[in-house]
Specification:
heterodimer, A: about 650 residues, alpha/beta, 6-stranded mixed beta sheet, 9 strands, B: about 80 residues, mainly beta, 2 helices, 6 strands, about 40% strand
């Protein structure tokens, strides 16, 4: 029996979900507030454009239920990019019950311009002055009570990354206060409100002292010690790396421990630890670093140092030390011998631990080769994301990218592509025009290796000379440049202007870095590992049906004839269709077994980087640019990568370069 | 915020013509640079020029923005 109408409407009223939209400028901490309110973790970083999609989460408070919506950052209600459009559409079409404007209270004028625009929507509004700790540290004091009285809406103060003040937002979720009307022109209104609510600071920021120079000197010393890895052999310095290695070798016979210790001594001790210490200790150093890293000369040196540290972290610690520990130690000496002894010879043995076994290849590649590499990369990348360094690279690359029909803003999706090309393709939404989004998507699919692939490649290349690595990445960079040049001239449409907020350099919170790294590792295990197992299964079935040999023979003209690679490399490229890092792992194994000479390693790795986008990226390309464009990208990239490999092989062999 | 007419006529210059470190007040913004309003760069706003190459960097209220030179040239200012 149905309930009476009055009762039904009462229930509906009780259970009606209030929709709360978190809106604000880019990089003011909306996602941090969202995470604190809902308990649902979304990626938080220190650069504008981290959120390009709407995220939703629900909370219950007593009888009331709320849907919290995290939105991409906006600078005004006149959108200039796809992600800003998403926010505007949400406000206009879904008409939330309440807007919580998350703001950086240190920039009150800018905040109030947006407050005024949001107020015009006629939706109840709460103003959250986030990052209250930074504001106070910078000597900026706002009187929230006076501001609340002046605006006619609740004003709360938070430090969302720490969870401070979140309760105050919760208490205002049922607010129905709307922005008080203003009579004067907007700039005058803003100035008056600022004048009435900004409390003059008595102390102001602390001046730079001699003590601030100490941590800088420590970092300089650390950088010098780091550079001894490169300069030492030339100048005849005794290396810290070598010293530590010999000490460890005297203490233990475990090679992996010796290698690991030497790696730590080689770069962690002299550079990373002082850098972290300096970042935590000195606010002035962060300011200086923020300035230096956007200047051409010092910025380029800092970039080189950063790349070098990541190279050591991913290429040495990840792809060599940890891989040796897991592949040779865990799988080679423990898991596989035990399983081989336990499982009697037969089809199950072949399926699990055979040449293309689910465990010996699928699990081993995923867990022992790729996982340690992506872990190290995610760790370094999360640190960079939260530090605020990446937007400065956007600035430095602006003029370069203009030649490719893009602007410096496109650097962010490109560098995010080093984490995951698929996710980065979604991030191209921060670009303002369709032409820019297509160019960036193609360049991502063509020449930006994802973290797993990059790490595996660095691991292989680390075994060759530095020139080999340079040739690989220079060739790829040239192709990216050439493709960008062609696309910028072929595709119609304008290039948008470059404007980007440069966030301050911040000390990343380790909890956030570890949480992001862990979530990304979990994502990798969930998304990639099944594909690794599927790839092994496909190879197993093909081999059992005797089709694998047929495929290798059929593709021999391409891989053997055109690229002069061993016929077995066809299997690596075959599984590269599933995931490029999987294909790279196949090449990694071939290189370790000595099946590839140095030129073949360079050619195969270059082609693998340029090779087809992985399955997941292909689906995102369809989603963002439709099937025809995605197929066009897939086909052209496949042909192009083989052509580049052919020319590179020809050049290297005719010039007699053997690395 | 109203800018005195004398300032508008006599001393105004393009943002890119300032010397590094100079502080200024915005007097006019050309149409091509109109989207800068969303970044709090509007007539009356106080800015400081911090870098010119490879992109123009300005500071406004403690925030730093990188904008390309073409846009920055559309911002007219008076030195303070």
């Amino acid at each position: 029996m149905s309930a009476p109408v009055a009762v039904r409407s009462l229930r509906q009223e009780r259970t009606r979900i209030r929709r709360i939209a978190l809106v604000g400028h880019p990089n003011v901490g909306k996602s941090a507030v969202f995470t604190r309110l809902t308990g649902r973790f979304v990626t938080i970083s220190n650069f504008p454009g981290t959120t390009v999609e709407v995220f939703r989460g629900r909370i219950s408070l007593g009888d009331s239920e709320y849907e919290i919506v995290d939105t991409p950052g906006i600078n005004s209600l006149r959108p200039h990019s796809e992600d800003e459009r998403v926010t505007l559409e949400l406000l206009q079409l879904e008409h939330p019950d309440l807007i919580v404007q998350v703001a950086d209270g240190a920039n009150l004028r800018r905040t109030l311009f947006l407050t005024a625009e949001l107020g015009k929507l006629g939706i109840p509004l709460v103003l959250d002055l986030n990052m209250q700790d930074e504001r106070v540290a910078n000597g900026i004091h706002v009187d929230p009570k006076r501001l609340s009285l002046r605006l006619g809406i609740p004003v709360v103060e938070t430090v969302a990354v720490r969870g401070d003040g979140i309760e105050d937002i919760v208490q205002q979720l049922s607010s129905t206060s709307r922005l008080a009307p203003r009579e004067e022109p907007l700039p005058d209104w803003v100035e008056r409100v600022v004048g009435e609510t900004l409390v003059p600071s008595e102390s102001g920021p602390v001046p730079v002292s001699t003590a601030d120079r100490i941590p800088m000197s420590i970092l300089g010393l650390g950088a010098l010690l780091h550079l001894e890895n490169y300069l030492g052999p030339w100048l005849g310095w005794p290396t810290l790396h070598g010293t530590l290695e010999s000490v460890l070798a005297g203490l233990t016979s475990w090679e992996w421990l010796v290698q690991g210790g030497a790696t730590l001594g080689g770069w962690v001790l002299p550079v990373v630890l002082p850098l972290l210490w300096v970042l935590y200790r000195s606010g002035h150093f962060r300011q200086r670093l923020g300035v230096w890293s956007r200047e051409v000369v010092r910025g380029s040196l800092i970039l080189l140092l950063t790349v070098s540290v990541i190279y050591h972290l991913v290429g040495e610690l990840g792809a060599q030390t940890l891989v040796a520990l897991l592949e040779d130690g865990l799988f080679g000496q423990l898991v596989l011998p035990i399983l081989e002894g336990l499982i009697p010879a037969g089809w199950l043995h072949t399926l699990l631990v055979g040449k293309y076994g689910l465990i010996s290849v699928g699990l081993s590649y995923g867990v022992a080769i790729v996982l340690p590499v992506v872990f190290c990369f995610f760790l370094a990348f999360s640190f960079l994301e939260d530090s605020g360094y990446l937007p400065r690279l956007s600035l430095l690359s602006d003029r370069l990218l203009r030649g490719l029909g893009l602007n410096g803003k496109a650097f962010l999706p490109m560098v995010l592509g080093l984490g995951c090309v698929t996710m980065a393709t979604l991030t191209t939404r921060i670009l303002n025009t369709r032409k820019e989004r297509i160019i960036a998507s193609v360049l991502l699919a063509l020449g930006i290796p994802c973290s797993a692939q990059l790490g595996v490649i660095l691991g292989i290349a680390a075994g060759l000379s530095g020139w080999a690595t340079l040739v690989i990445f220079t060739t790829v960079a040239l192709q990216v440049g050439l493709a960008g040049l062609i696309l910028s001239r072929v595709l119609e449409g304008p290039r948008s202007d470059f404007i980007l907020e440069l966030p301050p350099i911040r000390s990343p919170l380790w909890q956030n870095i570890l949480r992001k790294t862990w979530l990304r590792v979990k994502w990798f295990l969930r998304e990639a590992l099944p594909l690794f197992l599927l790839g092994a299964l496909v190879l197993f079935v093909l081999e059992q049906l005797n089709w694998l040999e047929a495929i290798i023979q059929a593709t021999a003209p391409l891989f053997v004839g055109l690229l002069q690679l061993p016929a077995e490399s066809a299997t690596a490229f075959l599984i590269g269709f599933l995931r490029r890092d999987y294909g790279a792992a196949g090449l990694f194994e071939m290189a370790r077994q000595g099946l590839l000479d140095p030129v073949q390693i360079v050619v195969s790795l270059t082609v693998m980087i340029l090779f087809v986008p992985c399955v997941a990226n292909f689906f995102v390309l369809i989603k963002e640019h439709r099937l025809a464009a995605a197929l066009g990208i897939l086909l052209s990239i496949t042909v192009y990568s083989l052509l580049v490999g052919f020319i590179l092989n020809l050049l290297l062999r005719s010039l007699g370069i053997t690395f | 915020m109203k800018i005195p007419e004398t300032e508008r006529l006599n001393d105004r210059m393009r943002l890119t013509e300032l010397t590094l470190g100079d502080s200024c007040r915005v007097t006019d913004i050309e149409r091509k640079a109109g989207l800068l309003a969303g970044f709090c760069i509007y007539p009356g706003a106080r800015l400081q020029l911090r870098q010119k190459f490879p992109a123009v960097v300005i500071a406004s209220e403690g925030l730093e923005f990188a904008i390309e030179e073409n846009l920055a040239r559309g911002v007219w200012v008076v030195r303070e």
